[in-house]
Amino acid sequence: QVQLVESGGGLVQPGGSLKLSCRASGSIFSINAMGWYRQAPGKQRELVASITSSSSTNYADSVKGRFTISRDNAKNTVTLQMNSLEPEDTAVYYCSMTIWPNRYSFSDYWGQGTQVIVSS
Q: Of 13, 31, 55, 82, whose CB has the highest number of CB atoms within 10 Å?
């Protein structure tokens, strides 16, 4: 059984910063890609940032230069540092990981979501 637990959401003023973390636990053989997605009210879920097992990163155009994704393989953790936050960044943020619970198969796992509200 694999679980992803997120932390770090909250309310922040425009221009402020937040750091989201997501840790995987349970039966884990290895983890490939990790990523952060977000879903604003009335909108589809979108990719915010992703990082491969070799630490190559990819960002949505809307967050380039403001957000930074990183991973700690020893702790099975992915982090999203969000700076210069804008009201448009308000959404529920979800982490996702492609995890091999054993050497034979893999699945995509999702966290429960953490709310980020950017408002004055």
A: 82
| Angstrom distance (rounded) from CA 34 to CA 17 | 21
Which residues have CB under 8 Å from 76's CB, separation 6+? 23, 24, 25, 28, 31
CA nearest 9: which of 76, 70, 72, 94?
Answer: 94
Query: Tokens 């091999």 appear where?
Result: 100
Residues 6+ apart with CB under 8 A from 65: none
Amino acid (1-letter code) at residue 75:
K
Q: Copy the structure tokens of residue 89.
A: 């960044």
> What are the CA-CA distances from residue 74 to residues 23, 49, 85 (Å)?
11, 20, 29
d(CA 118, CA 120): 7
- Asked if residues 77 and 21 have their Cβ atoms less than 8 Å apart, the reply is yes
